[in-house]
Amino acid sequence: MKGMINLNRKGFTLIELLAVIAILGLIVTTVSIAVTKVYNDNVNKTMIVQNNKVMEAASIYLNDKCLLPLDGAVCPDSYNEGQYICLEDLTENVKENYLTEVTYKNDVCSGIVVFEENSEGEKVEPVSYLFCGYDSSKNTFSYATNPLLDLSKYPRCNVKKNGYPSGV
After folding, report:
1. For residues 110 and 87, is the Cβ–Cβ distance under 8 A?
2. Which of 108, 116, 114, 126 is nearest to 164 (CA)?
3. What are the pLDDT digits (tens) for 111-127?
4. Residue range 11-35: mean pLDDT, rounded
5. How do residues 1-11 score in pLDDT, each as one tens digit?
6. Contact by Cβ (8 Å): 157, 151
7. How far is CA 11 from CA 19, 51, 61, 75, 109, in A?
8. DSSP the chain
9. Burial of 55: CB neighbours in 10 Å, binned 0-12, 13-18, 19+
10. CA dihedral (159, 163, 167, 168) positive or negative
11. Considering just the CA atoms, what is the radius of gyration of the chain in Å?
12. How confident is the model at residue 166 (pLDDT cuts 50, 70, 90)?
């Protein structure tokens, strides 16, 4: 009979099922790669914003405590000895509102803000170094502004406070 549908067919063939699974696999892979990229980009942008806030807070702290001290302000020894301020100096006294904790994927960061002078002896833009999420088994940080920075030059910054070995 012409025009009748064959009702004897009961399901998909193996090739049809494999084609559908392959197409779904490609879609899932593409979407997961895109989501991972967006997440990592956002984490990196967050660290850039936090790094900028650290440098801004350090500049304000330096003016308040060292260059133009407010009543009773004490310039930290780290600045007097080596032109740097430890991140913990900025986050210690929350009442002064310099900075709250800096975090990276739920890890509290340690850090150093270094102030250098140009050839005329004027302060230039500070440089912030953040160290977050130390993995002792790999001897690396999950995030480090400069993992090769010699921390022994900044002995007053207690990088060990967050579980990092003193030699890192």
Report:
1. yes
2. 108
3. 899 988 778 877 778 88
4. 93
5. 565 565 566 77
6. yes
7. 14, 59, 73, 79, 58
8. -TT---TT--S--HHHHHHHHHHHHHHHHHHHHHHHHHHHHHHHHHHHHHHHHHHHHHHHHHIIIIISPPTT----HHHHHHSEEEHHHHHH-GGGTS----EETTEEEEEEEE--B-TTS-B---EEEEEEEEETTTTEEEEES-TT--GGG-TTS-GGGGT--TT-
9. middle
10. negative
11. 27
12. very low
d(CA 73, CA 139): 38
- Which residues have a Cβ under 8 Å from the Cβ of 55 and sit 6 or more positions away? 113, 125, 126, 127, 128
pTM of the model: 0.72
Amino acid in the structure at residue 69: P
- Tokens 């063939």 locate to 13
